[in-house]
């Protein structure tokens, strides 16, 4: 049975709730694997920008350089129209340039007797960005401070040049557009995918999302169990970290998903030039990746996949030990 | 669940039935809010403690009050203070006068001794009167100094014909215990600690010796001066270890073949007990039998045969007995002058000062000592008659704990005596000379051997070797380096008690958990393995006594109507209903109304007429009332119950809360008292107020205080299998977290810090009391208990990559590199040579203008971090000229320091300073920041450790319908066999706390109730069981079963893969054996051990064996002469003088070495050669 061709007909999306931070919607007449793919892509592969390289010019605070850099990286930056920015590895420049990065300056010095708190609002975004919003630190609190970076005491100062680059959360969670995505189907467990454990009454002991349960239709007592039923209605709850509008996350997610699929189709037909979405997550064959193939390995030990793991590290390392900015083989620090 | 008033927070004990405590919430904090009220605050205002009974609710507030006056390590500090304030003066008093053998008119008398405030070694003590030194303990740590204070004495002595008095003469320096009353931190407010670069939470109680923090561990010993009755190899014996300042000796009364004897090292043989008593002046047989056996015919019959010895040896009178004993005394003095030994005098001397020394004999009054011996004999008889009366060596009441003060006291006494001795020898030397140019002034000689005292104490503290010839004491490992791995490891070390028993002995008695440990020693906190049960830890609310004056207590005994035992006969002493009063084990009085005596005595103690640490208890088996004032007893406070009512009422607790009363007021008002182990076991203690009946004498303050500080971290420990709690006690000390508030100003050899430590979601009262929540070591991880991916078997954990990216388990590792610029004997010294910087050398790039690496640089292997030059000539030689300013010949040799570790690190900070020896020291602190990787070790607080098995992308992780993904996935197989129910309860309480926004507690024998937690969960839309329905992140399908899901506090342990990762293809070899080196630090090989070898042998893989054991190890070619079987050289046999029949063989170098070593011992080994591949 084709899930696209059920009685409701075409796929349709219904927004239950949407505001600037979250989008609560359901997709009907959809298929489970694709719905989950969308969830996964929204979680891990929607590009955003985040601070990736930090040049520490001065740091006399109590926290170590790496400590502050890690904190800086996790500050959500506005990623509107992030497509205007080139991925760093696709750019011709050395290191970084205006085309592939946004530079933020952090320069603070405590001169008073009180302890000074440095917030995300103190990050100054450079000029010459592809658009007005991109790269601005996300500030949502009423005081307009943003997340705290470091506290300074009298005489301590901090000066850092932060380079924000485009990336995806698969590489590092700082590029995640959304920290968590609510995802649910069949809230009434009509499909019996779940075997509820209970002592007396599962209805009392297992509270459920009433809203979704109502939408999905509360099963009638004595309703016969349909063995062939498959999930068709999916409840999504996308909450943004702040860099992208929640609806943008969904749209970008769909786009990324489409391009990944296009990449696969391209690879299969051999006409399309692209290699996955960004040469990163798509299917790879040894020949395509540098043309080395199964031939003689050059240095050290290589895998048949040409020394490139999915995460872009060198051979013989854990996927997490190698980051694009650190060079493979070592620890991230 | 009854309805709750708005926001009550968790309940600790009982349900929310009675609410009198709630009213107190309205009381605003008193105006004067010191840190004490802050300490109490979380328990007063934020939440109210509900309990069926009002006082039972709040009585636990006594615990923070106790810790406020006593502190966590007060036993160390009290002991040290006692030493400095009292014991030191006593020692000097006992060794007050120095005489001279050469001039008997001369004398020098110490009139006083004092310890001043700590200062630097180069600061003059005269200035200290006007201006205190501004030295801080942290300066000593950083500069490798000893945190010590000058010891000064006042003296008066004879100079010529005049008496001279001098004040404040420095005789040495004493290392000062941190936070003792001589320490600069003493009496300073918490807010000042930051100014002194000290941590306000740090408990003190340790020393800083040459920059290292040293703790004198508490030592456990059998109590001194007490009679112990034992049955050793079937022989019943009573023994007593007498210990006074002068002498230590052990005396036995043994029962051999039905006869009683006294045994002592000074005596050649065992002496019949009757002779001893006769020699001590109890001449009549009737009196003897009365004193020992009383009127009891059974004992009389048992004792009667002892008199046979009298007729056999013809000893009837005191004189005859003394003669007999005198003839048995070992000759110790050299037979000078061939004087005939006077047996009687020797026997009197021996009996009065050597046997049972701690019972003094004044003016030939042997009666007390005779009574003591008689009591020992009686104890043996009683034990013979009734074997249950044998004493238990492992009973905690028979133990004494030796603390820093006592250890220092014997050390100081020894050194002070030596000081005086050397001083005297010096004086004698001068005074012997008949004519002196100037008048002799002893003062000039006081400083000649100046720092023996200082150095002696310092050396003992820094090495931990207590070698005192006088007591034949040779103890190693008395002091330990304070472990600063985490705050809890430092605390754990301060409460540790080490036993004197041999670790190798396979006896279970001393290792077993003793029922008398209850409340005194932690039942959980002991190491596993060889030291199991021998190393113990103090419980939370314990105190170790210091010595109290005995005389006032003795007077009080007589005031209370007890009769002096010296004037009592055996009839009275052992008569029916007569109880003997013992003070510190010595019988002094008899009473017929022991119960009344006991209550009267206690009343006096409770009104503060004597020290609160004097204990009294009745032993009905021996008909004795025992009073103890000695040092080293463990005791703990209990609430006094009289007539079935607790003395601590709501009124007093209110006063405690207001701050108008403190713990000491509770003591002086007789509401609370200290009870030592012996007294505790003579009391009827109710755990809860509801349990009080008419026989109850005391009430526990809080039951969870039976656990120590380390075990107190475990939530719901009373639901765990007990070994799990023990495992956690060992692991909590390895957790990475915060060390102290001054952690960034310290430069330790190795320091682990967590980047984002969190306080536990499920806390305990102990955690708040010891302020673990201020210096935590762990993070609250969201855990899903499910199986995932197969990378989680055998306790492995699955980590969420996104969590790791966001900082979960991230830690910093600091390592110290210390360089000393040595001063040489010829005046030359090392120097930093910035001019040696070579801009072309890539390894020099990170060096700054001063010749030291710059802060913030990343050091990789082979980078130079310090440009140092050493003088070429460092020998003392008169010909070197020495014109050079540095003394040497002016030639320099480069000895740059290079970074050798395989993993790079950043330079965190650099310190340049000078130590006590005017040596320049450079300390460089290196920093690494590590994120968790595969194989790093994590543990929950329930002894459940595991390594990271895989780090999985967030998208692949299972998630709840809200999209919540776990940080850690734990395999459910970890639960059934471990039975850590406490961990499940922690998850439940943690989850409820998170959803509710409230702090939940897992305090032992209390804590948030599961039922309440379930209610919260249900009200927040979760299953009450803590289980959630999850969706697979990989397929998007719902997981068919529910998953136990919620926060658990996880600790990152110090064992990290990065420090252990090691492999080697080829590398260095040991010089002697030419085998590969051992260990990662030496880039060593990986050993194919015996068991692996056995496997290969069994399999028959001979070529592989050969390769592993020889070819890849220490293969060596030698020439062997076939004729003589000896090793030759270059195809020539030196023995046979021929090159014929010399063949090359390959053998392990170790084998060749063995042959040569045997040859050097005149053992000839002949090698017989055969064909490798025989043709026939």
Automatic annotation (TrEMBL), chain A:
Pfam families the record matches: RNA_pol_A_bac, RNA_pol_L
InterPro entries recorded: DNA-dir_RNA_pol_insert, DNA-dir_RNA_pol_RpoA/D/Rpb3, RBP11-like, RNAP_Rpo3/Rpb3/RPAC1, RNApol_insert_sf, Rpo3/RPB3_RNA_Pol_subunit
Domain (DNA-directed RNA polymerase RpoA/D/Rpb3-type) ranges: 22-267
Compartments (UniProt record): Nucleus
GO molecular function: DNA-directed RNA polymerase activity; protein dimerization activity
This protein's record includes keyword Nucleus: yes
Entry GO terms, CC: RNA polymerase II, core complex
BP GO terms, sorted: transcription by RNA polymerase II
Record keywords, A-Z: DNA-directed RNA polymerase, Nucleus, Transcription
Primary location class: nucleus
Record bears the keyword Transport: no
CDD domains: RNAP_II_RPB3
Complex and partners: Component of the RNA polymerase II (Pol II) complex consisting of 12 subunits.
Annotated family: Belongs to the archaeal Rpo3/eukaryotic RPB3 RNA polymerase subunit family.
Protein's name according to its UniProt entry: DNA-directed RNA polymerase II subunit RPB3
Phylogenetic classification of the source organism: Eukaryota, Fungi, Dikarya, Ascomycota, Pezizomycotina
TrEMBL record, chain B:
Pfam families found in the cross-reference section: RNA_pol_Rpb2_1, RNA_pol_Rpb2_2, RNA_pol_Rpb2_3, RNA_pol_Rpb2_4, RNA_pol_Rpb2_5, RNA_pol_Rpb2_6, RNA_pol_Rpb2_7
Keyword Zinc-finger part of the UniProt annotation: yes
Sequence ranges assigned to domain RNA polymerase beta subunit protrusion in this UniProt record: 71-441
Catalytic activity of the protein: RNA(n) + a ribonucleoside 5'-triphosphate = RNA(n+1) + diphosphate
RNA polymerase Rpb2 domain sequence ranges: 216-402, 481-544, 581-642, 663-696, 1084-1167
Signal peptide coordinates: none
Annotated localization: Nucleus
Subunit details: Component of the RNA polymerase III (Pol III) complex consisting of 17 subunits.
Function noted in UniProt: DNA-dependent RNA polymerase catalyzes the transcription of DNA into RNA using the four ribonucleoside triphosphates as substrates. Second largest core component of RNA polymerase III which synthesizes small RNAs, such as 5S rRNA and tRNAs. Proposed to contribute to the polymerase catalytic activity and forms the polymerase active center together with the largest subunit. Pol III is composed of mobile elements and RPC2 is part of the core element with the central large cleft and probably a clamp element that moves to open and close the cleft.
Protein name listed in UniProt: DNA-directed RNA polymerase subunit beta
Taxon lineage: Eukaryota, Fungi, Dikarya, Ascomycota, Pezizomycotina
């Amino acid at each position: 049975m084709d899930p696209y061709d059920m009685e409701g007909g075409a796929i349709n999306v219904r927004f239950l709730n949407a505001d600037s931070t979250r989008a609560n919607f359901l997709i009907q007449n959809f298929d489970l694997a694709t719905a989950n793919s969308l969830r996964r892509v929204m979680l891990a592969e929607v590009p955003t920008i985040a601070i990736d390289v930090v040049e520490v010019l001065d740091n006399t605070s109590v926290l170590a350089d790496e400590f502050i850099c890690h904190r800086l990286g996790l500050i959500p930056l506005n990623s509107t129209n992030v497509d205007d920015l080139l991925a760093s590895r696709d750019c011709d420049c050395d290191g970084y340039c205006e085309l592939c990065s946004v530079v933020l300056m952090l320069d603070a010095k405590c001169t008073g007797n009180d302890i000074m708190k440095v917030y995300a609002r103190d990050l100054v975004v450079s000029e010459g960005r592809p658009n007005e919003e991109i790269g601005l630190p996300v500030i949502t609190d009423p005081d307009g401070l943003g997340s705290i970076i470091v506290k300074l005491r009298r005489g301590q100062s901090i000066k850092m040049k932060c380079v924000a680059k485009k990336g995806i959360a698969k590489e590092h969670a700082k590029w995640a557009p959304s920290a968590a995505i609510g995802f649910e189907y069949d809230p009434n467990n009509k499909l019996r995918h779940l075997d509820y454990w209970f002592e007396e009454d599962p209805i009392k002991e297992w509270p459920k999302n009433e809203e979704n349960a109502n939408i999905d239709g509360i099963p009638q007592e004595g309703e016969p169990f349909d063995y062939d039923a498959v999930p068709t209605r999916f409840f999504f709850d996308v909450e943004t970290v702040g860099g992208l509008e929640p609806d943008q996350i969904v749209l970008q997610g769909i786009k990324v998903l489409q391009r990944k699929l296009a990449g696969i189709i391209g690879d299969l037909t051999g006409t399309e030039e692209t290699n996955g979405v960004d040469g990163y997550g798509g299917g790879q064959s040894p020949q395509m990746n540098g043309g080395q193939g199964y031939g003689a390995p050059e240095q050290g030990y290589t895998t048949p996949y040409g020394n490139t793991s999915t995460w872009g590290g060198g051979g013989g390392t854990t996927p997490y030990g190698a980051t694009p900015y650190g060079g493979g083989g070592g620890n991230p620090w | 669940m009854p309805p709750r008033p708005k926001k009550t927070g968790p309940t600790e004990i009982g349900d929310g039935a009675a609410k009198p405590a709630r009213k107190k919430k309205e009381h605003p904090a008193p105006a004067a809010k010191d840190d004490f009220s802050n300490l109490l605050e979380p328990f007063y205002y934020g939440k109210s403690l509900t309990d069926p009974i009002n006082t039972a609710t709040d009585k636990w507030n006594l615990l923070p009050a106790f810790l406020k006056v006593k502190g966590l390590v007060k036993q160390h500090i009290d002991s040290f203070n006692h030493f400095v304030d009292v014991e030191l003066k006593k020692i000097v008093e006992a060794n007050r006068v120095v005489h001279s053998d050469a001039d008997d008119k001369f004398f020098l008398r110490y009139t006083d001794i004092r310890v001043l405030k700590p200062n630097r070694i180069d600061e003059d003590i005269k200035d200290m009167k006007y201006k205190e030194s501004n030295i801080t303990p942290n300066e000593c740590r950083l500069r490798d100094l000893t945190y010590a204070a000058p010891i000064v004495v006042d003296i008066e002595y004879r100079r010529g014909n005049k008496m001279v008095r001098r004040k404040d003469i420095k005789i040495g320096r004493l290392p000062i215990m941190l936070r003792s009353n001589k320490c600069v931190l003493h009496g300073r407010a918490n807010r000042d600690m930051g100014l002194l670069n000290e941590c306000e939470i740090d408990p003190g109680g340790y020393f800083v010796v040459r920059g290292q923090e040293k703790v004198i561990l508490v030592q456990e010993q059998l109590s001194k001066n007490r009679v112990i009755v034992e049955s050793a190899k079937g022989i019943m014996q009573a023994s007593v270890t007498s210990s006074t300042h002068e002498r230590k000796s052990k005396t036995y009364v043994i029962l051999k073949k039905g006869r009683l004897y006294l045994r002592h090292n000074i005596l050649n043989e065992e002496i019949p007990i009757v002779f001893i008593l006769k020699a001590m002046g109890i001449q009549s047989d009737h009196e003897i039998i009365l004193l020992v056996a009383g009127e009891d015919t059974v004992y009389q019959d048992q004792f009667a045969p002892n008199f046979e010895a009298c007729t056999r040896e013809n000893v009837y009178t005191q004189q005859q007995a003394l003669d007999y004993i005198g003839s048995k005394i070992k000759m110790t003095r050299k037979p000078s002058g061939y004087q005939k030994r006077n047996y009687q005098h020797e026997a009197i001397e021996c009996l009065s000062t050597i046997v049972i020394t701690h019972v003094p004999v004044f003016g030939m009054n042997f009666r007390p000592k005779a009574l003591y011996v008689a009591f020992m004999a009686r104890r043996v008889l009683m034990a013979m008659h009734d074997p249950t009366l044998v004493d238990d060596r492992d009973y905690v009441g028979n133990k004494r704990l030796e603390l820093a003060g006592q250890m220092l006291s014997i050390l100081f006494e020894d050194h002070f005596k030596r000081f005086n001795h050397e001083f005297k020898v010096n004086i004698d030397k001068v005074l012997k000379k008949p004519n002196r140019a100037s008048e002799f002034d002893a003062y000039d000689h006081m400083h000649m051997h100046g720092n023996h005292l200082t150095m002696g104490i310092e050396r003992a503290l820094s090495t931990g070797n207590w070698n005192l010839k006088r007591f034949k004491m040779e103890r190693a490992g008395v002091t330990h380096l304070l472990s600063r791995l985490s705050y809890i490891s430092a605390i754990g070390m301060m409460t540790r008690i080490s036993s004197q028993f041999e670790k190798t002995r396979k006896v279970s008695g001393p290792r077993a958990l003793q029922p008398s440990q209850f409340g005194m020693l932690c039942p959980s906190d002991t190491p596993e393995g060889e030291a199991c049960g021998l190393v113990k830890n103090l419980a939370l609310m314990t105190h170790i006594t210091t010595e109290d004056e005995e005389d006032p207590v003795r007077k009080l005994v007589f005031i209370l109507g007890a009769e002096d035992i010296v004037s009592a006969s055996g009839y009275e002493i052992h008569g029916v209903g007569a109880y003997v009063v013992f003070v510190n084990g010595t019988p002094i009085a008899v009473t017929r109304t022991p119960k009344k005596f006991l209550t009267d005595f206690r009343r006096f103690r409770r009104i503060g007429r004597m020290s609160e640490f004097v204990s009294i208890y009745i032993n009905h088996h021996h008909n004795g009332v025992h009073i103890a004032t000695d040092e080293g007893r463990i005791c703990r406070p209990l609430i006094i119950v009289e007539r079935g009512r607790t003395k601590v009422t709501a009124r007093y607790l209110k006063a405690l809360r207001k701050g108008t009363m403190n713990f000491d007021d509770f003591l002086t008002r007789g509401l609370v008292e200290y009870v030592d182990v012996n007294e505790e076991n003579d009391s009827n203690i109710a755990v809860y107020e509801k349990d009080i009946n008419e026989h109850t004498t005391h009430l526990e303050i809080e039951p969870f205080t039976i656990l120590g500080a380390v075990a107190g971290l475990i939530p719901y420990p009373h639901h765990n299998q007990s070994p799990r709690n023990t495992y956690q006690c060992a692991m909590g000390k390895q957790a990475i977290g915060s060390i102290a508030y001054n952690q960034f100003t310290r430069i330790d050899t190795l320091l682990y810090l967590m980047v984002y430590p969190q306080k536990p979601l499920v806390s305990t009262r102990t955690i708040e009391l010891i302020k673990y929540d201020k210096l935590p070591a762990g993070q609250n991880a969201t855990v899903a208990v499910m199986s995932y991916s197969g990378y989680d078997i055998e306790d492995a954990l699955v980590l969420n990559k996104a969590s790791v990216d966001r900082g979960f388990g991230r830690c910093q590792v600091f390592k110290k590199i210390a360089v000393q610029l040595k001063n040489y004997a010829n005046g030359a010294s090392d120097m930093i040579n910035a001019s040696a910087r070579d801009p072309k050398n890539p390894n020099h790039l990170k060096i700054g203008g001063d010749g030291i690496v710059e802060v913030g640089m990343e050091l990789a292997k082979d980078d130079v971090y310090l440009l140092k030059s050493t003088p070429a000539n460092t020998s003392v030689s008169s010909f070197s000229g020495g014109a050079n300013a540095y003394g040497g010949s002016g030639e320099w040799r480069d000895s740059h320091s290079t970074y050798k570790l395989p993993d790079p690190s950043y330079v965190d900070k650099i310190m340049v300073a000078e130590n006590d020896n005017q040596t320049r020291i450079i300390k460089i602190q290196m920093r690494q920041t590590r994120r968790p990787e595969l194989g790093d070790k994590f543990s929950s607080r329930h002894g459940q450790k595991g390594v990271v098995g895989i780090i999985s992308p967030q998208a692949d992780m299972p998630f709840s319908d809200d999209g919540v993904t776990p940080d850690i996935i734990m395999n459910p197989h970890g639960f059934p066999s471990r039975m850590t129910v406490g961990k499940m309860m922690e998850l439940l309480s943690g989850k409820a706390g998170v959803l509710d926004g409230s702090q939940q507690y897992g305090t032992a024998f209390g804590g948030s109730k599961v039922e309440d937690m379930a209610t919260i969960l249900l009200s927040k839309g979760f299953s009450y069981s803590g289980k959630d329905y999850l969706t697979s992140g990989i397929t998007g399908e719902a997981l068919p079963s529910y998953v136990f899901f919620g926060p658990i506090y996880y600790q990152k342990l110090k064992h990290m893969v990065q420090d252990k990762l090691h492999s080697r293809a080829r590398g260095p070899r040991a010089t002697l054996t030419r085998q590969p080196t051992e260990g990662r630090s030496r880039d060593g090989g990986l050993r194919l051990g015996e068991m692996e070898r056995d496997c290969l042998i069994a399999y028959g893989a001979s070529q592989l064996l050969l390769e592993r054991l020889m070819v890849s190890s220490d293969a060596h070619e030698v020439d062997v002469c076939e004729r003589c079987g000896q090793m030759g050289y270059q195809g020539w046999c030196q023995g046979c003088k021929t090159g014929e029949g010399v063949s090359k063989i390959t053998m392990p170098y170790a084998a060749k070495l063995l042959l040569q070593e045997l040859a050097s011992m005149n053992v000839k080994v002949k090698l017989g050669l055969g064909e490798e591949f025989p043709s026939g």
